[in-house]
Amino acid sequence: MRIFTAILKRFLQLAVLSFLVTSATFFLSSLIPGDFFSAQQLDPTIRRQTIEQLRHLYGLDQPTIVQYAHWLSRCAHLDLGESLFYRRPVRSVVLDALTKTMWMGIPALALAIVGGVFLGAIHAIFRDRSVGLTLDLLSTIALALPTLVLGLAALLLAAHTNWFPLGSMSSSSLQEPRFLAWLADRIHHLVLPVTCLTLPILAYVERIQCAATQDLLNEPYVRAARARGLARHRIFLRYLLRPSLNPILSTSGPLLGSVLSGSLVLEVIFAWPGLGQATYDALFSRDLPLVVGCVVGSTVLLVAGNLVADFLLLIFDPRTRAQGGAL
Amino acid sequence: MTLVTRLARLLAIPLLLLSILSDFLSPNPPDVLDLNQFFAPPSRIHFVDARGAFHWRPFVYRLELVEPQYAQYRELTDETYPLAVFCGGYQYRFLGLIPLSTHILGTRTAGVFHPWGTDDLGRDVLARTLAGTRSSMLVLLIGIAIYFTVGVSIGAFAGMLHGWADAVLMRLSEFVLALPALYLVLALRALLPPRMPFWQTAFLTAATIASVIWPPMARGVRGLILQIQSACYVEAARALGATPWHIFRRHVLPALAPFALAQTAVAAPVFILGEVILSFLNVGFHDSAASWGAMLHNLTQDPRILTDFWWNLSPLGFVFATLFCLNSFARRLRRKEPTQLA
Amino acid sequence: MTDQTQLLLDTGGEFSETAPMLTKSRIAAALAISMLAVTLHLCVAGAQQKEIVDYLVRPDLSGARGGNLVASVISDPATFNMMFATTLANGAVAGQLSADLVHVNRVTYEVEPSLASKWEVAQDGRTYTIHLRRGLRFSDGSPFTADDVVFTLNALQDPRNPSMMADLIQVDGKFPSVARVDDYTVRFAWPRPVGTELRALDSIPMLPRNRLLKAYQDGALASAWGPTVSPQEVAGLGPFRLKEYQRGVRVVLERNPYYWKKDKTGQTLPYLDTLTFLVIQDRNAEALRFQAGEIDLFDRMSSELYASLRRSERAKEFTVRDLGPGLGMDFLWFNLNPGKNSSGASFVDPEKLAVFQQAAFRQAVSHALDREGMVRSILLGLGSPQYGPISSGNKVWYNAGLRTTPFDPKQAKVLLEQTGLRDTNGDGILDFGASHRPLEINLLTTRGSAARERTAEIIRQNLSQVGIRVNVQLLLPNELASRFQSSFDYEAILFGMTPSDIVPDLEADLWYSSGQSHFWFPNQTKPNTAWEAEMDSLTARLVQSLDQGVRRKTFLQIQEIWAKQLPAIPTMAPDILSGWGNSVGNTRPSILPPFLLWNSEELTKSTR
User: Fold this and answer.
1) DSSP H helices in C81-227
2) Are strands C56-57 and C261-262 parallel, antiparallel or unpaired?
């Protein structure tokens, strides 16, 4: 029951969020003169009339309030309008882009969490040995290297060594490949962006995990286990792993946020046609419906991710169930 | 003290000083173009001239553009330009007030000695990188000022005035937290009119970033206030007839300070990084303003910078060093913070 | 049989008595059979003749069939109907699927027959009888007739279909008339005689009436062949037809089996089996993939890319070439509009306007600009300084004797002094007006083009050397457009134009003082200055004259007036830099769009 109310609450949050976000975007963009077709006005061979006709076709000649009202009414049918640049329904553009971002984001997140958890635990356990100190330095360095630096360096590496393809999602030489070949090619293209996305997040997770594990190491039951002579790895797996997941899952918000932000920068660098690229392009071509759609899309992704994290928290940590959920 | 902390301490003070001393440390002004010396490599320092004579004072040669397409230069060995310490050079205003013209190292003629080479329009890279500390520091200072003020105020309002104000503000913070940060910042900044004036860009960039990251501060402050308010000594003060303002000023604020400062230290690197990313994505500072992010933006325009003209990458090192210091500093402060708020 | 007859005739009388077979009846029978055979042959031939396709033969062309050529576009095509393509990228793809009546050869700039095999002009100088090639079929097999031409040109004129091409075939705001004469002839008439003849029909795609009539009647022609259309629906007369389209990934075109051009060996074109367009939004990624050999064609690369490609190790596997200055160039102009906005305030400060309106001021600014330095540092030497309204890359119409304003800050200062500007307070900035305010100008330009932003920066520095302070402000192109076309709220703008063809008639709206595109002061009710009045009369002569010599001379004069008065100060024109893989043959690179693909039917790809 609590789970259902939690999900319902998240959906409500999503709806209100989307409303606020789109309103803000609409009115913010109304501050600036010029719209999508202003650029075409610059061509001296095109009649003003043609531009006006196009404007009328897309409803851009009406005041912002009216456009906004139209948008709202269409939203009731989950119709986000049509992108001016792609001439396709915004919903399909955003869904396409979302899927492509997730191709990059989900492996990065998974690797970052798994890697971070293990490395963080090792860091905490061997805190004063050389392993721990090295990890300390490495994680600080990794946190200080923004994804854009990593991404640019990776692209340079790809260009010079030719080990990896240079951006985009698939090779052109592959014409109608079979599934396995297609998958291998996709993974080949994913290696560099995913690595760049994973490293800072891994460092972040590692940092949290280290702190959490450190706290746990002082817990009486762990001390008791060690006194009983249990092997280190058994202590880790049985006693430390599950409770230490709590802080990580609780910070799922910022974690997912940094996945999205990092992927935006990397998509621009690697020409990966995901949500970040789409937003960036839409902003610069003043494709307003698409901008709004992209921001809503990323919000949905974030909220959905938070929901999954809450869910996982309920599963992994029985204490939260007792407390009525961490929601 | 760990290696990390030691390194951070080592780097922190010089970085801070750089933004004040940037003009003093660079032999050339950061915004003067030289269309005959674009992408010039770092000046080579010689002791022995072309005729084989040894000079006690090191000197440099002037460069001549041989091939514009590959930015190839050759040194003109007929004239030497000796380097001098504390020499006179271009005029600048120290701290914006005192007009000086002394530089730590340079030649008497301007535009010859480029310790770190030049960029695509012939501007001195060292000068621009050092000047970049200014824009980053500006965004940082404005940003944390806004962050601190807004965060503490909202948190204080929520904490002190219970009831619907509290509920509304907390819901608002939840909503902002639930939004994807960079998307929102990018959208906000891109939709606002791009302003060239330095101060306006700095303010807009800082404000945009601050408007998205204030929730943790506000929530923390609010939580702390609620805790304090239920403490005995506050109840006692209230029983004695103290006004809410008095309680706030004398009891709440001092207890808030450590947390607020720690939280601000955590947010500081976000401003630097945010400014770099926004300028890199072409919505922050522009190229003419000598910001690190804007200098890095050129990487996307001209891939030769990565291979042939690597001296333009100096902002990367500075970005990394600054983030490194700020992160470690924040971490140390965080460790000292009371844990009931973790 | 013929041999036997020959034998019979040769051996004549010798064998006549020894050939008992040759009786009269048999000869008659043989003759009858041969007549029958000949008649049958003629009938069959006649029937076949109805099927004969009027191919366009290229006696200079030869090549090997086969291969897949890979090009790239910067965005997904919004439509596969060339008539509604609004971007160059879209046009690059859609243009391969259709053909025009006449085509401008992108290298010789001459008008050549395309779907029209020949045409005659009537006495009135404005009516053309256009003869279409016979027997041609669309890519789906349906026949091409005059009905399709009439349908296309009527659809173009229909205000329900907002097409950019509609503006190109208007003369004085009126459309031409088109009427069918018979299956393969149309009568086409301009509102008045034009010096460019049929040139405006270049690239206007002939649409299949059968397929699109319903969409047209429903008013949905513009969206009929959108991105979700199934490939079989798209029928055209171009060298290729649509095979497959994956959103955000690629467009694959395959050879049109009904294409109507042949090479000198009689082989039908195109040579290529398929033409693939990869959708690559990032120019750097595109460059890297070109270097890696994944893409075969790369047109209009930046100077930096060109420089690094020339030096690349793989230089042996591809060719890059500098084709000389293109048609596009950037202009710096001042707002010369003395009007007032809706709230009664002048668009430009009147005292500043008084400064801008002096030709000596504009000439001074032009002398202050270091164009050579700009070309050297921004374009790496791969461009040319410009001093007139059209680029020197337009070899046909450019006035080579134009007066130039070379980089001369001293001369600039002298000229500025002549306009009355003095530095009264010694701060290094000239002062103007009654109250001696410092001359500070806001320069607007677009954000997102590195070359233009750098140009603005150089302009700022150059002008500060002569005492003018410039503040550069960056706007998105849409905002900039509305500033100088709607609100006229600006002081100076740096922006570029790229004409799509070499003839100046296309930009008549720019030369006329009453034109919307007369950007420094549009929509004048009567010419504001004497030189603008002169330009008006010259422009009228240009567009109305039919004599090519007169047209050319007139336009040379227009360029001279511009170079002297400098209503907009030209800066530089970048060279067109293109590259292609060495396995691509028969390339004829052009500075006009679609650059390397305008002769796609001629291109070959050797598969090694």
Assistant:
1) 88-94, 146-157, 165-168, 209-217
2) parallel
User: What pLDDT was estimated at residue A300?
Assistant: 79
For testing contact with chain C, the best of A35, A52, A87 (most C CBs within 10 A): A87
Q: Please give the structure tokens belonging to residue B98.
A: 């005192």
Each residue's pLDDT tens digit, C391-404: 999 999 999 999 89
CA-based nearest distance A18→chain C, Å: 26
- Mean pLDDT highest for which of C40-54, C79-93, C325-339? C325-339
For the residues C491-507, what does the mean pLDDT come to? 89
Query: Would you place residue B260 in the very low, low, confident or very high pLDDT band (cuts 50, 70, 90)?
Result: confident
Mutate to test the interface with C, among B32, B35, B285 (most CBs of C within 10 A): B35
Least confident of A263-277, A308-322, B19-33, C199-213: A308-322
Instruction: Concatenate the DSSP letters of all residues of C9-29 into one string.
Output: HHHTTTTTTT-TT--HHHHHH
Beta bridge partners, C279, equal C73
Nearest residue, CB atoms, C461 vs list B33, B193, B195: B33
Residues whose CB is less than 8 angstroms from the CB of residue C596 and which lie 6 or more positions away in sequence, other chains included: C71, C297, C299, C578, C580, C587, C589, C590
Residue among C374, C382, C453 whose CB faces B287 most closely: C453
Structure tokens at B58: 């090191």
Helix (H, G, I), strand (E, B) or coil at C477: helix
Distance set, CA C312 to CA B41, C320, C601 (Å): 20, 11, 30
* 356-375 in chain C: CB under 8 A from chain B: 370, 373-374
pLDDT category, C569, cuts 50, 70, 90? Answer: very high
A317-322 long-range contacts (CB < 8 A, ≥24 apart) are A317/A242, A317/A243, A317/A245, A317/A246, A317/A249, A319/A246, A320/A246
Residue B111 sits at the vertex; the CA angle it makes with B110 and B117, to the nearest 5 degrees, is 140
The token pair at B198 is 């330095």
Phi, psi of B155 (to 5 degrees): -60, -40
Taking the C-alpha atoms of residue B172 and residue A20, their distance in angstroms, rounded to an integer, is 11
C442: contact with B, CB 8 A cutoff: no
φ, ψ dihedrals at C210, nearest 5°: -60, -40
Q: Dump strand ranges (E) for A212-302.
A: none
Closest residue by Cα to residue B180 from A262, A91, A204, A246: A262
Which value does ipTM take for this structure? 0.79
pLDDT(A245) > 80: no
Q: pLDDT band for A40, please (50, 70, 90 cuts).
A: low
Q: C69 forms bridges with which residues in the sheet? A: C275
Name the most confidently modeled range: A280-289, B229-238, C368-377: C368-377
Residue A137 and residue B183: Cβ atoms within 8 Å?
A: no
Q: Residue C16: its pLDDT value, please? A: 39
Q: How far apart are CA B313 and CA B303, in angstroms?
A: 12
Chains with at least 3 CB pairs less than 8 angstroms from chain A: B, C
Question: Which residues in chain B belong to E strands, given as ranges?
Answer: 46-48, 54-67, 72-82, 84-94, 98-106
Q: Is the pLDDT of residue A29 over 70?
A: no
* Structure tokens belonging to residue C224: 């009929």
Residue owning tokens 């461009």? C383
The pLDDT value recorded for residue C70 is 93
Q: What is the DSSP string of B158-170?
A: HHHS-THHHHHHH
Say yes or no for a CB contact (<8 Å) between B186 and A140. no
User: B187-231: per-residue pLDDT in tens?
Assistant: 777 766 666 678 888 888 899 889 888 988 888 888 888 888 777
Is A34 at the interface with chain C, CB within 8 A?
Answer: yes
Task: Give the mean pLDDT of chain C.
Answer: 86
Phi, psi of C254 (to 5 degrees): -120, 160
Asked whether the beta carbons of residue C477 and residue A42 sit closer than 8 angstroms, the reply is yes
The alpha-carbon radius of gyration of chain A (Å, integer) is 24
Nearest CA in chain C to A164: C292
